[in-house]
Write a structure and sequence with these properties.
Length: 137
């Protein structure tokens, strides 16, 4: 895309060789520091970081009672009922901001990979939430 068009400063107009159409941004991904932090913190801490964001995004996507119930079941299965906000270090705040910028699908995949392996009840609850969200879409 033309970098100058977005600021209204493209002098080439119709002759510009770059696209002047709006393009969807790529979904954000975790950088190396964020991935290492998720790998290094314990699973309970990872759940406490990710679940409040999953709750907010899930309910924003579908505020139905079924989705709210699926989110609460996931939080209970993860041992974080109510998914309270926790006090975050600087690096955890940075990770939280990056997680908040991710779409719900990537966020749920991150939750499954980083915080749920070896926890069949939580994995099942996450699958139930995904199924609930797919039924709405």
């Amino acid at each position: 895309p033309c970098l100058y068009f977005a600021t209204g400063q493209c002098a080439n107009g119709e002759a510009c060789e770059f696209c002047h159409m709006a393009h969807a941004k790529r979904p954000p991904h975790l950088n190396k520091q964020h991935r290492e932090l998720l790998r290094d913190i314990d699973r309970a801490r990872a759940k406490a970081l990710i679940l409040p964001i999953v709750r907010t995004k899930s309910l924003a996507f579908d505020g139905s009672e079924g989705t709210a119930l699926a989110v609460e079941r996931l939080a209970a299965a993860c041992g974080v009922p109510g998914a309270p906000r926790v006090r975050l270090s600087h690096s955890e705040r940075s990770l939280s901001v990056a997680l908040g910028g991710m779409n719900l699908r990537l966020l749920l995949i991150t939750l499954q990979r980083a915080a749920l392996p070896g926890d069949p009840a939580a994995e099942q609850a996450a699958d139930a939430l995904i199924t609930q969200l797919r039924s709405v879409a």
